[in-house]
Amino acid sequence: MKPWPNNSRKRIRKLLISDLKNHASVNLLNVADVSDEPDYKSSLRENGCADWKKWEDARREELDAMDRFKVFEIVKRSTMRPGTKPLTAKWVHRVKTDEFNRRVRWKARLVCRGFLQREGINYFQTYSPVIKLQSSRLLLQLAAITGKKIWQLDVKQAFLQAKIEEDVYVRYNNKIYKLEKALYGTKQASRAWNKIISEAFDAYGCYQCKYD
After folding, report:
1. Does the pLDDT at position 36 exceed 90?
2. 0.85 surpassed by pTM
3. Which residues contact 133 (CB under 8 A, 6 or more apart)?
4. What's the pLDDT score for residue 37?
5. Contacts by residues 172-177 (CB-CB < 8 Å, ≥ 24 positions apart)
6. Gap between the Cα atoms of 65 and 170, Å rounded
7. What is the mean predicted confidence (pLDDT) over 192-212?
8. Closest CA to 137 of 145, 127, 129
9. Please, which residues bridge with residue 172 across strands?
10. Burial of 89 per CB tally in 10 Å (0-12, 13-18, 19+)
11. Rounded Cα distance, 65 and 184, in Å
12. Mean of the pLDDT values across residues 196-202?
């Protein structure tokens, strides 16, 4: 597919702006407020977001968890290795719903911009295994045949509990943070979590499927 010509993009943009102006309930300065999941700049009280209190509570819950799990420590920029650039981070907000599409939770995560990481500098390996579709189907079939129950487990703030070995620095609120745990968005986060959860399963006598 060929890219659109620049003049076509300009015409479409003008049409979108025209439609927004004709919509009385839209604030052109904060278009993100129309969404239930505003961006990190439009989720505060002063920007007119209707659910600002819920989003602030969600942020506070996440920050408390980061403090509880000792995700980072504040360091001086002079302690960083020469040539190392700290990563940036932003808030990501999501509304969680139940099976009836009712809002049950306002969730906020401080996400690191991991695409700025450089291989061999602040990450090395990223691979972490996942179950194959055939294995999950076999598990369900065995449970159905033998009459067993299957329980699903969801670990809250999982990545924030996974220790990382590389030196990863993040700049946020004009401060430099050295990560001790895998902040969401870092390239090694999944691998670090897989390592810690595998060790926990091993301690309970479980073992990994050889085919996954």
Report:
1. no
2. no
3. none
4. 62
5. 172/88, 172/89, 172/110, 175/74, 176/74, 176/75, 176/76, 176/77, 176/80, 176/86, 177/72, 177/73, 177/74, 177/75, 177/86
6. 17
7. 90
8. 145
9. 175
10. buried
11. 13
12. 92
3-class SS of residue 110: strand
CB atoms within 10 A of CB 126: 15
* 3-state secondary structure labels for all residues of 34-58: HCCCCCCCCCCHHHCCCCHHHHHHH
Burial of residue 147 (CB within 10 Å: 0-12, 13-18, 19+) is exposed
User: What are the pLDDT digits (tens) for 48-91?
Assistant: 677 888 888 999 999 999 999 999 999 998 888 887 889 999 98
112 vs 194: CA distance, rounded Å: 19
HSE value, Cβ hemisphere, 13 Å, CA-based, for 130:
5
Q: What kind and span of H or E run contains 79?
A: none
Of 89, 67, 83, 68, nearest to 167 by C-alpha is 83
Report residue 4's pLDDT band, with 50, 70 and 90 as the boundaries: low
| pLDDT of 34 | 37
Find the helix or strand (DSSP H, E) in which 143 lies: helix 133-146
